[in-house]
Amino acid sequence: EEVKRERPSLVLLDVMMPRVDGWSVAEQLAADDETREIPVVFLSARAAQEDRLRAQELGAVGYVVKPFDPIELSGTVRDVLERVARGERDQLNRELSEHE
Hints:
Blueprint: H1 2-6, E1 11-14, H2 22-31, E2 40-44, H3 49-57, E3 62-65, H4 70-85, H5 89-95
Parallel strand pairs: 1-2, 2-3
């Protein structure tokens, strides 16, 4: 609901949250015409390849493993936004499965 109301340029989404997990939120965002085009970058302590693949299946454009450097995260966000603006969203999504 907040994403629909605020219309952010990008959503940073933790996988493990109280009440609802990030996977479910990403599914809801992807299923809604009003939010499906908003890029999602997952933040998670879960570093397994299967988690990256799940993020990829949900249409995410990034996956950052905790702990992370806030300065590096800001660079990641800037890079993702620039690449999405250039039409590279699908490429970003494909790159999720290339990390190990």
